[in-house]
């Protein structure tokens, strides 16, 4: 007696247990530790990009607080600041607005080494890169608080009444007002990654640069998918003159170097935030179109497509409801590669000065501002954003390779 077993037990078990192809692909993907590491890096980057201003030390718009006295300080630099309130009405910003767009600065920060009080004044020793230089400055305590509707009363017995910028009334003797200034207007800050050539916090700008890179990649991929799937699907399904016209256009776009086309579109649309996203997206759809066209050409001959035609389903319905969903597996893989390409293109454009414009923090722009410091022992200013670009591109490349192996049914 001979006992035979099913030749393809995997598919049988999958059907019995109701395991979807997506779940099978995810199970294969998880077995690839390198691709999982890339996915974890992308996940962490997404969390950092969404958090943005919530985790950045500098929460002002674009992390653009410039303190010229502390330019080009080394990582780990620490100093104290006298925070002098800016003479304007305090604006009530909504929480969500502050998360996405940052907040306006509330203080003018003066770095200092030491301070002392002298009656109703504070005398500070300003910070200097050169220890032999000593600079002293003297400010009135009420000028530090900087009331908008300033009402200061000085009585003979040393009693003060001051209306602060936020409307709070502070009254008491001079010692109490000194204590108020010491507690609320003198801070100590550490710059974990140092400061750039304009005295801005490097860590904050790297964090916000993550948001720019992921946003340009996401929008560029969405634009490329919309155009590529539409044109590739129409060319592969209708064939004939439609296919010839679309493929002629695809070949023309394909023949132009990608970076040259991005630069041309950017110059036409103008320099700016959204212009770069659109320009990068308009140059990446040709690969998607060619892949979708090839998939549609093979799927349109399947039996279920013929059955749909036989029962009178409209051509557009067959294309977008039955053919396109079954042609998206290779599109997912190419989208991961396009995401990495978009990040590189945006960095290149910003480095050339025709991408996202200052003061918006971008990794390519940060390299452009600081690549000259490599020869003066401060190359980390350009190395850090370059390392961020490398890690992000590598992560998407690893995920794309993992998706290719997971979706391949021959594996």
Provide tags for this entry:
411 residues, alpha+beta, MetI-like fold, three-stranded antiparallel β-sheet, elongated, disordered N terminus
Describe the structure.
32% of the residues are buried. The strands form two sheets. A five-stranded antiparallel sheet has the order 4-3-2-1-8. The longest helix has 37 residues, at 202-238. The chain has helices at 9-17, 21-30, 33-51, 95-101, 141-145, 174-184, 202-238, 240-255, 258-269, 273-281, 285-299, 303-310, 315-323, 329-352, 363-370, 380-407; strands at residues 77-85, 107-118, 121-126, 135-140, 152-154, 159-163, 169-173, 186-191. It has two domains: 10-46 and 203-407, MetI-like (MetI-like fold, Orthogonal Bundle); 78-191, no CATH class. The protein is α+β, with helices and mostly antiparallel strands and 411 residues long. α2 (21-30) crosses α16, α3 (33-51) crosses α16 and α7 runs antiparallel to α8 (240-255).
Task: Set down the secondary structure blueprint.
Layout (H helix, E strand, L loop, with lengths): L8 H9 L3 H10 L2 H19 L25 E9 L9 H7 L5 E12 L2 E6 L8 E6 H5 L6 E3 L4 E5 L5 E5 H11 L1 E6 L10 H37 L1 H16 L2 H12 L3 H9 L3 H15 L3 H8 L4 H9 L5 H24 L10 H8 L9 H28 L4
Antiparallel strand pairs: 1-2, 1-8, 2-3, 3-4, 5-6, 6-7
Helix pairs in contact: 2-16, 3-7, 3-16, 7-8, 7-10, 7-11, 7-14, 8-11, 9-10, 10-14, 11-14, 12-13, 14-15, 14-16, 15-16
